[in-house]
C-alpha cells in the first residue's frame, strides 16, 4: 500500500474563528490512518489555530502558503521561512500557480524560496504546472520539468529527496476541470523520472501530489494512479465534511 499525503490549501479563506471551528469538527471525526498524512496550509493569520489543533496528532501537520527568500529584514508584509518555522510550520508551498501567475513569481524566485525553506528546516512543496495554452501547444512536460529543475537547482540531493512536489495544471485550478487520470499519470511519471535522475533512487520516494479541482468524487481515481502520492486541494478543502470524505478515500 502506498503512503499518501492529503494537503488542504485554504488560500485566502478561513479566519481564525472559522479555522478553529473547522479543526474542531475535523479532529473530532478523523482518526489516524497509518498510510496517510494530512497537511493544512491555512492563511498565516490562522496558522496558530491549526497548530493548536494538531499539537497532539502525529498524522496532522501544518504549513504556510508562501515564504520570502530572505531570512529576515525590512520586507514589509512578507513572512520568512524562519519566522514560519518559529510559528510551528513544517511545510511551505512554493511556486503555487497563483504565486506564479497572479503575483508574477519566477522560476528563479521559487528556487530562492526552496533554498530558504531548506535553511529554516521547512519542507518545501514545490508546485509545478502548465497553462492551458502550454498544454495545447504540446509543452506540458517541458514546462513542468523546467519548473522542477529550476526550483531545485543547486539544492543538495538530500534536501531534494526530502521535499515534496505538487503537479497542478493551471487550467484545472478552481475551474471544475480535472486532469484525467491518464493526464496525471503522464506528468507524474515524467516528474518521477526527473527526480530519480536528479537524486537517484531516493527520488522514487519523493511525494508527488496532484492538485486541480479535486473533490470527493474524483479523488479515488486520481490517487489510484501510479506516482500520484496524494492530492493538494483548494476549494473542496474548505468544508470540513467534504475534506473528511476526501481524506478517507
Ligand atoms: O492548491 C490547491 C490548488 O490550487 C487547487 O485548487 P482547487 O482544488 O480549488 O482547484
TrEMBL record:
It catalyses: D-glyceraldehyde 3-phosphate = dihydroxyacetone phosphate. Its EC number is 5.3.1.1. It is found in: Cytoplasm. Keywords: Cytoplasm, Gluconeogenesis, Glycolysis, Isomerase. GO terms for biological process: gluconeogenesis; glyceraldehyde-3-phosphate biosynthetic process; glycerol catabolic process; glycolytic process. Substrate binds at residues 9-11, 174, 213, 234-235. GO terms for molecular function: triose-phosphate isomerase activity. Pathway: Carbohydrate biosynthesis; gluconeogenesis; Carbohydrate degradation; glycolysis; D-glyceraldehyde 3-phosphate from glycerone phosphate: step 1/1. The keyword Isomerase applies. SUPFAM superfamilies: Triosephosphate isomerase (TIM) (SSF51351). InterPro entries: Aldolase_TIM, TIM_sf, TrioseP_Isoase_bac/euk, Triosephosphate_isomerase, Triosephosphate_isomerase_AS. GO terms for cellular component: cytosol. NCBIfam families: tim. Homodimer. HAMAP family: TIM_B. Belongs to the triosephosphate isomerase family. Involved in the gluconeogenesis. Catalyzes stereospecifically the conversion of dihydroxyacetone phosphate (DHAP) to D-glyceraldehyde-3-phosphate (G3P). This is Triosephosphate isomerase. It comes from Pseudogemmatithrix spongiicola. The lineage of its organism: Bacteria, Pseudomonadati, Gemmatimonadota, Gemmatimonadia, Gemmatimonadales.
Amino acid at each position: 500500500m502506498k503512503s499518501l499525503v492529503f494537503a488542504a490549501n485554504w488560500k485566502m479563506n478561513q479566519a481564525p474563528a472559522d479555522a478553529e471551528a473547522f479543526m474542531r469538527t475535523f479532529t473530532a471525526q478523523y482518526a489516524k490512518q497509518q498510510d496517510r498524512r494530512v497537511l493544512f496550509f491555512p492563511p498565516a493569520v490562522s496558522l496558530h489555530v491549526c497548530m493548536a489543533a494538531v499539537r497532539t496528532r502525529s498524522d496532522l501537520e501544518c504549513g504556510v502558503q508562501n515564504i520570502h527568500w530572505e531570512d529576515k529584514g525590512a520586507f514589509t508584509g512578507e513572512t520568512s521561512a524562519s519566522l514560519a518555522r518559529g510559528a510551528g510550520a513544517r511545510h511551505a508551498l512554493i511556486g503555487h500557480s497563483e504565486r506564479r501567475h497572479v503575483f508574477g513569481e519566477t522560476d528563479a524566485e521559487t528556487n530562492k524560496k526552496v533554498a530558504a525553506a531548506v535553511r529554516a528546516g521547512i519542507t518545501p512543496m514545490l508546485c509545478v504546472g502548465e497553462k492551458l495554452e502550454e498544454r495545447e501547444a504540446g509543452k506540458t512536460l517541458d514546462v513542468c520539468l523546467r519548473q522542477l529543475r529550476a526550483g531545485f537547482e543547486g539544492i543538495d540531493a538530500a534536501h531534494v529527496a526530502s521535499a515534496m512536489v505538487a503537479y497542478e495544471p493551471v487550467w484545472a485550478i478552481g475551474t471544475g476541470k480535472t486532469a484525467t487520470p491518464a493526464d496525471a499519470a503522464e506528468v507524474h511519471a515524467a516528474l518521477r523520472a526527473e527526480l530519480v535522475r536528479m537524486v537517484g533512487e531516493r527520488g522514487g520516494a519523493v511525494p508527488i501530489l496532484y492538485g486541480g479541482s479535486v473533490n470527493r468524487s474524483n479523488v479515488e481515481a486520481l490517487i489510484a494512479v501510479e506516482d500520484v502520492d496524494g492530492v493538494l486541494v483548494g476549494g473542496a478543502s474548505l468544508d470540513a465534511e467534504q475534506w473528511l470524505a476526501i481524506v478517507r478515500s
